[in-house]
Amino acid sequence: MAKPPLSMKPTGWFQVAWSDEIGVGDVHRMTYFDQEMVAWRAESGELTVMNAYCEHLGAHLGYGGKVVGEVLQCPFHGWQWNSQGRNVCIPYQDRPNRGRRMRTYPVVERNESVYIWHDAQRREPYFDAPDVFASFEDGRGAGDYYPQQRLFRGGLELHPQYVLENGVDFAHFKFVHNTPIVPVFTRHDFADPVSFVDFTITFEGDDGQNIEDVNSGVEAINGGLGIAVTKSWGMVDNRTISAVTPVDEFTSDVRFMVYIGRPETGAGKDPARAERKAAEFGREVIRQFEQDIEIWRHQRYSDPPALAPDEYEGFTAIRNWATQFYPELYASQKG
Ligand code: FES
Ligand SMILES: [Fe+2]
Question: Where is the Rieske domain (predicted)?
Fold first, then answer.
């Protein structure tokens, strides 16, 4: 395997599960950022993500750990840990161990996803995870769309930044996704950790059409390197979330989600047929994303890349923007 030249310990929000994979009382095992972790859901519904090994004598809490009300109880000696990672009970002592703490991760549940904040320097979150609905501020929400369709591909040899760079890579659309003409970018805003990219694109018509005549496009919001949300206009109404999370020094898990807009009510359509059509279109959007995955998973990151003059601005902007999510790189540049 080839280790990517980019750090697999970037800072930001990253998806580690879907909310419905972890019910009340469940203890869910997972590995991200080279750490064994558990996610457990308390009686109240609150979800906690913490490192998996008990601070007492190191039992793995994902094998026999039990949710008791609002705490997680270790299978080995029954010590109980709360959502802050604090020990609240040693069953055979009159007081808990107040000094030791399990490492917990800031967590948000949004758009049916579980996102954790990862930072090697353990800073608190300094930007927000994007929301596939609210972030576009158009008043539309999950109720305006059919249920989420999903793709999960685990343990692929790729880096989150490959996926993000796709967002400025106008030339690949024609070759990977068979668009008739090359899209045109109308916005590149890389001023903040949450960045914005808009482009005009069409999947219809022939290669003789003019991009100025195209009346459809995509708006993308990148919340750091881990999560990107998109909204389309002028075509079948769809929103997507792509989320790439490093597992270890070599591989990442990829999750991709699509929502297709419901037709206006009373449009005189057959609802079952409309839903079938939507599901079909969702599968097509997922298939397009899988075409990208086939490239990314075999790619070797090129640095510096051989860019065409027209590519220079977009790739330079996104690569400069990305450096802020690698604390070690950032520290060495400052120092
Ligand atoms: S190892 Fe967890 S309570 Fe002893
Ligand atoms: Fe793509």
Answer: 13-116
pLDDT digits (tens, 9 = 90+) for 17-60: 999 999 999 999 999 999 999 999 999 999 999 999 999 999 99
Length of the chain: 335
Q: Mind listing the pLDDT tens digit for each residue in 293-309?
A: 999 999 999 999 999 99
Domain shared by 212 and 256, yes or no: yes
How far from 182 is each of 30, 170, 289, 290, CA to CA, in Å? 40, 6, 17, 20
Domain that holds residue 49: 12-118
Note whether 23 and 67 are same-domain residues: yes
User: Does ligand 1 lie within 6 Å of residue 79's CB atom?
Assistant: yes
67 lines ligand 1 (CB under 6 A): no
pTM above 0.90, yes or no: yes
Conformational region of residue 14, where left means phi above 0, alpha means psi within -120 to 50, and beta covers everything else: beta
pLDDT value at residue 3: 67
Query: Using CA positions, which residue lies closest to atom 1 of ligand 1?
Result: 57
Domain match, 305 and 277 both = yes
Instruction: Please identify, by atom number, the ligand 1 atom nearest to the C-alpha of residue 57.
Output: 1
Ion ligand 2, residues whose Cβ is below 5 A away:
166, 292
